[in-house]
Structures are given as C-alpha cells and as structure tokens.
Amino acid sequence: MAKATLYLEDGTELTGESFGSTGEAIGEIVFNTGMTGYQEILTDPSYYGQFVVMTYPLIGNYGVNLKDFESVKPKVFGFIVREYAESPSHFESVMNIDQFLKEHNILGIAGIDTRMLTRKIRTKGTMKALLTTKEMNKEEAMKRLKAPLQRNQVPQVSIPSPITLPGKGYHVVLVDYGYKQGIVRELLERQCKVSIVPHNTSIQEIESLHPDGVLLSNGPGDPKDVPWAIPMIQGLIENNIPLFGICLGHQLFALANGADTKKMKFGHRGSNHPVKDLVTNRIVITSQNHGYTVTKESLEQCPLTITHIAINDGTVEGLAHHTAPAFSVQYHPEASPGPFDSRYLFDQFIEKIHASKEEKKNA
C-alpha cells in the first residue's frame, strides 16, 4: 500500500493510503457533508485551491461517468476520504475514482478518520494543509505551511474569451467567476441564448452584447479579491439591467451595493442545508459551497433587503435590490449535486427579464 501523509497547520499529522496522483500539494482544507455527488464536487470550480474532506465514509461506489461534470476537469487540489471504492458498480461508469484523480494529477488520501478530521475543522476552522506522498518530516511540513495560500483564484478558473450558446428565448450574459455547467443547463432549459464572458468583462463590453439579463456566477476564494467586478455590477444596477447573482456572484452583488463580507469559521458545504425564504415563509433544502458570507450589520445602510436566511446559523442567504430588478442567493439553485427545491429562482429571473422588457416597452 502506497502511503500518503496529511499535515495541518495546527500540527496534526495523519498517515493513510495514497490514491490518485503522487507528489505534494498545499491548500485550504474544508469538508463536504454530501452523501453523493463527489464527481460534481471534484469538478466544481469553487473548490479551486482546496482539499475536500468527504464526511460520508464510502466514496466512489458508482464510479465516474461522462455526464456529471460541472467543468471540463477537476478543480480541487486534494481529496480526502475514509474509504474509496476500487470496483464501482453503475452502468454509466467509465472509470473508478482512483483512475480519475490519476488522470488529472490530483492527490488523494484514504484510510483516515474523516469524522474526527471534520470535527477538528468545525472546532478550529478551516486551515492550511499539506498532502504529500513524499518522505517528509513534520518540521519541514510545518515550515512549508507558513507560506500564504494562493489568492486571486478567479482568473485561474474563468474562461479566457467569450463563447455563445444559441437559444430562442431571452439573451442572458453569464459572467464567469468559475461557473458550473448546472447553471448553463438551467438557462438553456428555459430556451435562453447564453453568452459566457470572462471575469474581467467591463460594463461597456456587456452592454455591447445587448443582454436581456445578466447572471453572476459562483466561483472560488474571497470576493474582495475580485474588485474589478464592482464597477461592472454597479453599472448593471444603474442601467436597470435584470441581474441574478449566485454564491460568489451574490457576495459581489452585496459588495457593489455597499455591504461587507467576512470569512466564515468553516463555511457551508453540502447538499442538505435548510434555508428560509422570508418572502413566502417556506423552508427549502439547498446545495451550498461557500466560505464567506455577507454580514447582516453591513446591510443596514444599503439598498438591499434580506430575502433568505440559513436556518442552521442565521447567516444571509438571499438579497434583493430595493428598486433595481436585481437579486441574489448564497446557495446553488442549480444544485449539482443536491435537491432541486430552488430551481424556481431561475424562473423568477426570467420573470424579472420579462417584466423589465414590458416596462421599457410601455415607457
């Protein structure tokens, strides 16, 4: 059995079985509580730069297929599981999880107590971690973990140039901060023409595309590392262009309206997070993946209303602009993986586009 070692910046050292690629990687360690959906998690660009601990003990039992990708290739830096399935069973499987990680040069470690590791992260918060298959003593590992983690992650996952997907309906510009295919799928199901543009696209460039609406995608890292997005979002609001923000897009929407964000202790990552819709008073179960949140106190002087809150900790999960046709949610209405309780938000976005066009027609 090949060996891998995981070092945390608090001094924790865990040795387990290596699977996937070999070598060394440093990233932020986080955990995900989903029982399924590991392929979507591995390929979600929001996990760029992170080691993901899966709390469910058996991962890989249905293999890897060709249709459940959220991006072209995996974005995680490391994958940590209690046990992985070497012989998956599913009619769509084309390889096992070990082969998949090897193919994309991603390190994995199995055979460690992932529940204990999760409790440690919940107690101490997310922290830097080093995963290696090389011989290394603890002193050397701790020395390497003193270096700061990579910032400015969005440019690493955003497309370099625009692409357009045809549709007969409204024209939606999707600003790519690390978008998931699930978002595009939901828009295409509603017959939208979708133009996907890079993270640093200006308001002038977006307006030249004559969009009916703009969607700000999810993505990795600290929203304050994407300051160039703020004037673009402010321009969209000033020009009353219908706007929908998801996850990182939600945080950027808040910053553009004068609110503030902060890093959470260990974030929300999983497919079973309850959220209350303050408009309808209903509870929905949501898919989430974020380590930052919009602070409630910063919203007091902003032109924004809180529309959704997290049941577990009361954090802000949704916002709506007082006058502009703009709103956002912190969670993932496209799921992938997760429940489809919140798909209706894409319909609300289309309704806002329709109402905006009718208003302009009658003006």
Provide structural commentary:
The protein has 363 residues and is of the alpha/beta class. The protein has two domains: 3-144, Glucose Oxidase, domain 1, CATH 3.50.30; 154-362, Rossmann fold. It is 24% helix and 31% strand. It is built from ten helices and 19 strands. The protein has helices spanning 38-42, 97-103, 114-124, 138-144, 154-157, 181-189, 203-208, 229-238, 248-256, 344-362, and strands at residues 3-8, 13-20, 24-32, 50-54, 58-59, 78-80, 83-84, 107-110, 127-132, 163-165, 171-175, 193-197, 213-216, 243-246, 261-277, 282-294, 304-310, 316-321, 326-329. The strands form three sheets. The protein has a ten-stranded mixed β-sheet, sandwiched between helices. The longest helix has 19 residues, at 344-362. The chain is globular, with a radius of gyration of 21 Å. The relative contact order is 0.13.
